[in-house]
Amino acid sequence: MKLIFAIVSNDDSSNVISALNKENYSATKLATTGGFLRAGNSTIIVGCDDEKVDHAIEVIGSESKRRIEMVPSTASYDVGRFSSFPVEVQVGGATIFVVDVAQFHKL
Ligand code: 2BA
What we know:
alpha+beta; Alpha-Beta Plaits; two-stranded antiparallel sheet; 2 helices; 6 strands; binds ligand 2BA
């Protein structure tokens, strides 16, 4: 048995959990904080049989692809004058660790 840790953006976490549940994976979502950006992200943990790991990673990846989004940004070009323009930011993606499970109990 393996334990998958998938760190995804908060925006993608609900879709990732839904897709995993639909494929009969049990999953737990933890609210976490990235050490570099100090911004909130989500860590999803999934315990599953060894042969189901690759499919779980596919499911996670399908709902957390890296993509470019346009977000509004504001610049000041004179005292009290602001201009709003869209900037491209990269969002999404998943960082995944897979570890061996020594024991699994449900009491
Ligand atoms: P990613 O590499 O996609 O990582 C996204 C989040 O995944 C990280 O958030 C962290 O929570 C987790 N993570 C990634 N690699 C990990 C590892 N080896 N062990 C444990 N957790 C890990 P943040 O730490 O806030 O990083 C956000 C983004 O900032 C990273 O995206 C990367 O593009 C950049 N970054 C992180 N550390 C950096 C550094 N030392 N120098 C430059 N850029 C860095």
